[in-house]
């Protein structure tokens, strides 16, 4: 993690005697705050990643999870879905997966002598796209319309996906044989990219102790993981996030940051206007989670790496010198003037 990663913190409780609207806001914030505790019953030491997933839920944005094998990426998503009480499906992406396997297809019914649509796994609230970079670009592109338009088109007919709809895709950063790198157009559809770190020594020891005492990652109910928030809580929270104020100065700061990435000499592709919009949305969600009604420049800084780094392409010669998107963003954040 770097210094721009959102810090730890829990929402403040509403003081006694607050207006009903303020109490409702606190209730929605508390409901989502309980997700971290509930997911923690199954996953150890990944509170910051859970925070990133909750921010994406609040912003109706998709998530790219990257991490070496065995750091509980899949378990994180399953625990989050169980805690939020939403429908979830998992697709294991493989080289032979076809677009229709994901979106659904028309199936001939001999009894009625007609074709009927059979929904694919995309028709869910939370889709876990496991090892998305193992499937060919043709199938990867089948996700583009679903992620952007929240619908799929089969045989010329658009079919709306459920709401909420969130894609959480995982990929392995250390194994490239038989993989297909995600194109920039698809990377830009992910609101945030979260890098799941290896646990600390203490957290890893806690993982082993849990397994020694009988913890089964395939049985979350036995681990005590259950719904602590509903889709209604999520909708109320989204309505509250939409009311968080963002001043013209902070909007200008976001624009200046994104434009600076396009002008950096080591960058061949900077952040698009879609990325700037995403940073504004995640900053508002983070401000709301911290109990504020306005966005500060510190909120923007906190979410910049998660929201922008994966949207940038570094020149090959700069990569050879060790330059990464994160180091470019660190430089940009240090040089772009912060509004007062």
TrEMBL record:
InterPro entries: AAA+_ATPase, ATPase_AAA-3, CbbQ/NirQ/NorQ/GpvN, ChlI/MoxR_AAA_lid, P-loop_NTPase. Residues 1-24 are annotated as: Disordered. It comes from the Bacteria. Residues 59-200 form the AAA+ ATPase domain. PANTHER family: MAGNESIUM-CHELATASE SUBUNIT CHLD, MOXR FAMILY PROTEIN. This is MoxR family ATPase. It comes from Demequina litoralis.
